[in-house]
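Record format v2
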Amino acid sequence: MKEVKIGLIGFGTIGTGMVKTIFQNREWIKNRTGIDLNLVKIADIDIKREREVKVSEDLLTTDAYEIINDPSIDIVVELVGGTTVAKQFIIDSIRNGKAVVTANKALLAEHGEEIFRLSREKGIPIAFEASVGGGIPIIKAMRESYAANHISRIAGIVNGTCNYILTTMEKEGKDFREVLAEAQKNGYAEADPSLDIDGGDSAHKLAILAMLAFGKRVNLKEIYVEGISRITPLDIKFASDLHYRIKLLAIAREREDGVELRVHPAMVPEEHLLAKIDGVYNAIYLEGDIVGPNLLYGQGAGMMATASAVVADIIDLARKIDYPRVEEDFVKCDGDLNIIPIEKHVSPFYLRFQVVDKPGVLAKIAGILGDHDISIASMIQPERREGESVPIVIITHESVEGNLIKAIEKIDKLDIIRAKPRS
Amino acid sequence: MKEVKIGLIGFGTIGTGMVKTIFQNREWIKNRTGIDLNLVKIADIDIKREREVKVSEDLLTTDAYEIINDPSIDIVVELVGGTTVAKQFIIDSIRNGKAVVTANKALLAEHGEEIFRLSREKGIPIAFEASVGGGIPIIKAMRESYAANHISRIAGIVNGTCNYILTTMEKEGKDFREVLAEAQKNGYAEADPSLDIDGGDSAHKLAILAMLAFGKRVNLKEIYVEGISRITPLDIKFASDLHYRIKLLAIAREREDGVELRVHPAMVPEEHLLAKIDGVYNAIYLEGDIVGPNLLYGQGAGMMATASAVVADIIDLARKIDYPRVEEDFVKCDGDLNIIPIEKHVSPFYLRFQVVDKPGVLAKIAGILGDHDISIASMIQPERREGESVPIVIITHESVEGNLIKAIEKIDKLDIIRAKPRS
């Protein structure tokens, strides 16, 4: 039996879930793993507020450094979030020789290299399963289960809020703003939803996954990011007519000349498993050169699902606490990942133009696309009209994004409005 | 850098995949994990046959004990299969202090407790990711990622051959025998397919998953097993009409009075992810009390996918080779799992009767079901007739299987033929 002393910094939703999990399953975990999780201190700026779990008052402090500087504590769990104090807490914990568990994707996406370098220098591991996909074991799978593989492709639905909104728009035919407002009311979207709906949160998670897959530093700013706010019920309907579903995907795709990294609404063929991930659920699809395609699915957020990952990390670190380290205990970030600029990405595209309904318009659009080396795979021009304009939907063959951008600039000058989910 | 010396026993399909993987990705693995996989010996009864990978002759031997008794070898990989010599190889390897990797589900299902007990006594770990779901990281997920959870429910598509046959029957409307013959021709089914199609292979995998989920010994003989050979295209059509798909599931379900363990064709609601797993793919769905529902998907068999799991296990054992052990390194098998006999299982049922088309038959059937406390949820009596008889399909509400068995015995005496996939 190995007792491990844990300090928690950040007693919010996930922190509460972690405490509940330990209180509820401590004996079971001890029996199964031989590790006794002893939560000795909880720090939060607000220790008065009622939580879903009742803890003894002498466990609580408002001073995180009562944990970080306590020599008896083995593992620090950082669930504060954000990239300022959380960063300092983690750095100081590592410096003090404490293994760290965090769910902080923004911090790892922005400052991962610095933190991982320090972790390696000090020989102190940091675990972060909860940073991507809630309770889905994607981080461990990538670090350990797929360790024999080169991973060449990742496509993830990693933001539950966006997936919930898109699923609801599809099922109820409502428009984006209306569903977002409902989601905010139901607690599926934040009061300030921009990090979710603009794709920033998905980009953070993609940066972490790409770092693990390719073993290189990922410059977050080089990830192309497009959110879901421009998707209309009409796009969803056209996608459905063409046997696609629209999902916000975080995509990494290795090419000979580098890696495409992008977050955007994508047309997913309806027979693909990713098309079938509904509501707040997450799924990460990937392809390894040995294992082939794999997909991992589960709740991507939420108090308990995320806590499951946090506690698994604690158990993992606890068992290794006195072990000699090997390379695999640390995250590799050697050199910069060669991220291909968006202009050079290659994929099929979905284009919707709202055009004036008069002869010759379609020929003009097709002509401009052709001039830019973009060929049309299929097209819908539905009967119904909206005022005096009609929508035209075009799916292209694989095209270079830079060409598409130029073509659309020209088409836009024809007084045509576009909407652009892509696959 | 940590070099680990590996001996492989069994140079068949998976063994070949493992060797290919190490040859192909050894540098990459070394760079990523800090572990250098040095394959020093391969034993097989046939060392003359051409394989997909070329190995130096002095690596080969026909004597497994050249590996088992070689003091320089750290890890023995057993890929012989079967429950006779393979068992002895594993036992002798553990006795000689060598960590073991195996893909042998039949052996672990039948003699797991004995092997795991020895492993614990000797402090020598055994890894078996490849025994269930090929390259899908389900074993590691259950042992480590879901370590904070009580797992209360598992439903897995864990036999690619059966799933391929059912998918093909569905897509092409062909009958079981015809599709099986094709599958044998294509290499998707063995010459003797009984272990797959009768559900025995799925039962082996279920036994392993249940052992991990509940930490108890599982008596393989107590698992209810029913294969797919009685499924007809008509069943598949009726299922589809009712918005279900028929899948061979391996199910574990915890109840207050014990655990239901069963393998049988099941009606899966078409919106459930398991309904969408096609062809030779596998998926394991599970529910934890903390993590909620998770699903892991990938190729459940095949040379390279399975090799991915074998090599991941080798890396895992290699990194831990000199570490002090903790409880989690071993598999718990304390006491017998309380497996509920099939008569007491509770679920909805699908029943198809072929009845003589005359008045009063349906009333008789409904009457007998009612007498046995089985209520009807929905019913189809299609127009089309086969000769002089017509099919009737009934979906019941949740019913006790023992009652159903008795009811069907009585109905059978009415000169009625049944076919019985169930959910």
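The mean pLDDT of chain A is 93.
Chain A touches chain B through 61 residues (CB under 8 Å).
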